[in-house]
Amino acid sequence: MLTVIGLDEAGFGPLLGPLCTGAASLSLEFDPGEGPPDLWSQLAPVVGTSPRTCDIPVTDSKKLKSSSKLPLRNLLAGLVPFVEIATNTEITNDEDLLRAIGVDDLGPFESESVNLERLDGLDQGQRSLRRAKLNRIASENGIQIELVRAKATHPRCLNELFDALGNKSSANTTLLFGLLREVLSLDMHRESPRVVVDRQGGLMRYQPLLLSKFHGGTISTVAETPEISRYRIEREQKILHIGFETQADARHLPVALASMAAKTVRELLMNRLNTFFAQKQPGLKPTAGYVQDGRRWVAEIGDLPERLQIPRRDLIRDR
Known about the structure:
The chain is an alpha/beta fold. The protein has a domain at 2-199 and 246-270: Nucleotidyltransferase, domain 5, CATH 3.30.420. The chain is 41% helix and 19% strand. It has helices at residues 39-43, 73-87, 94-100, 117-120, 124-140, 155-165, 168-185, 207-213, 248-251, 253-280, 291-301, 304-307; strands at 2-10, 19-28, 47-48, 56-57, 144-153, 194-198, 218-224, 228-235, 238-245. The strands form 2 sheets. The protein has a 7-stranded mixed β-sheet with strand order 5-2-1-6-9-8-7, with helices on both faces. The protein has a two-stranded parallel sheet with strand order 3-4. α2 (73-87) crosses α5 and α2 (73-87) crosses α10. The longest helix is centred in the C-terminal third of the chain and has 28 residues, at 253-280. The chain starts with a strand and ends in a 12-residue tail after the last helix. The model has no long low-confidence stretch (mean pLDDT 93).
C-alpha cells in the first residue's frame, strides 16, 4: 500500500489570529504503472470537488468558503466525516472538532463551544449518514483514512518565532515541518510514504531546506521543474519521498484535506476571538483578521486590550 501525506497552511498573511498548519494521511492500494493515484475518482460519487454535486466536498479550502449565512458549511461538510473516521469520534461542536484534529491551544480568548448544527446546518443524523457513506466507499476501495491533523500558532508564539528566525517564510516552513515530524512520529503510515506540500512562492530548489530539516539524511533530487520539485530522503534506514507542487490541492486529495483542516481551524478560532471581543464591546463588527480590515478592527477596539490586560503581542502579529 502507498501512504500519501498532504501538508498545507492557512493564515500566512493576516494581521490577526493564528497561522494554522494542516496534515492529512491516507493509504491505498497503488500500482505505479497506473500513474498518480486519484483519490477523488476512487471515492466518487460520495466525495467530489463541488458541494453542488456531492455530499462531501474536498478541494482548495478557499473555494469552499460559503457566502451564505453559514460560511463554514461546505468546509465542515467535507472535513468532519474524515476527522470522525480518522479519530473514531462523533463531533457535536466546534471544540470537539478542534480537539479531535489535534488543536490543544484554543488561544487566549475564552468562548463557549458552538453546536456544529449552527455552523453547518446539518443535524447529527445527517452527519452520521455522510460519515457512513464515506466509510463504506473507502472500505470498498481499500482506502484507509489514517489521520487529519492541524496546529494553530497564535500571535504571541508567532512573534517569538519571527524574532528568532528573522522572517515569515522561515517561520512558516518551521511550523509545516514540525507538523510533518509529529505525523511521521506516530508511525501510522506504510513504508516509504509520499509527502506532498503545496508549493508557496517561486522557490524551485528545496534540497538546502530539506538538509536543514532532516539532519543526517541522504537527500537525492528526483526532479526540479517549475511545477514539481521532488526528492528522496533516506534516514535511519527509512525512506521518505517528498514533493513540492504548484496547485497541489487540486492534484492530491490529502493536500486539499490538509488545506481544509488548516482553514477550518483558523476560522473557528477567529470566531472565538470575535465572540470574545464583541462581548466586551457590543456593536463591534467582526474581522477575518486580514491586514486592511484588521487595522480597522484594531482602531475600533482602542485601548480595550490594555483594559483587559491583554498584551498587544498576544493579539497582533509583528509581521
